[in-house]
Amino acid sequence: MDLARRLQLEDNLLRRHFYGFRIQDLQGGPNLGVVGTLTTNSARRYSLWIPLERFPGQAPRMYVVSPLLNDHKGNPLWEQGVRSDMHLLSANEHRHVQICHYQDSHWSIDVTLYKVVMKGRIWLEAYESHLRTGNTIDYYLGHM
Asked: How far apart are the C-alpha atoms of 46 and 25, rounded to whole Å?
């Protein structure tokens, strides 16, 4: 399957299962990626950005772009760098936290963007539990 067809199928799947999510610049613009907002069980809203420059050959990066995240003590997560116990990778230049969702060794070209967004949703629920309890995200999620 060619990339254009794959991305159109992925976009349709996202729009069907995650209201408000879509692939922007689907027709070849400079900012090809998934954008959308998730609402957690506590009714908080988080916006995600998933650039697709190497998809599907490599796992895409996933950033929480709004709001800027803090840990349970109020310290900015973007300042904490890579932390396996919090499932964090390096933040981008805009201080958006990059969350880990698939290790490279577990990635396959068959993984859909639906699954990537779902892992973002699960991470956000674990993050909110971290805010309430102080436990690291590792306490709630295993590594994948």
From this structure: 21
pLDDT tens per residue across span 61-100: 999 999 999 999 999 999 999 999 999 999 999 999 999 9
* Secondary structure (H, E, C), the chain: CCHHHHHHHHHHHHHHHCCCCEEECCCCCCCCEEEEEEECCCCCEEEEEEECCCCCCCCCCCEEEECCCECCCCCEHHHHCCEHHHCEECCCCCCCEEECCCCHHHCCCCCCHHHHHHHHHHHHHHHHHHHHHCCCHHHCCCCC
Structural domains of the chain, ranges and CATH numbers in brackets:
3-139 (3.10.110)
**Cα 10 to Cα 101: distance, rounded to the nearest angstrom:** 18
Please say whether the beta carbons of 98 and 62 come within 8 A: yes
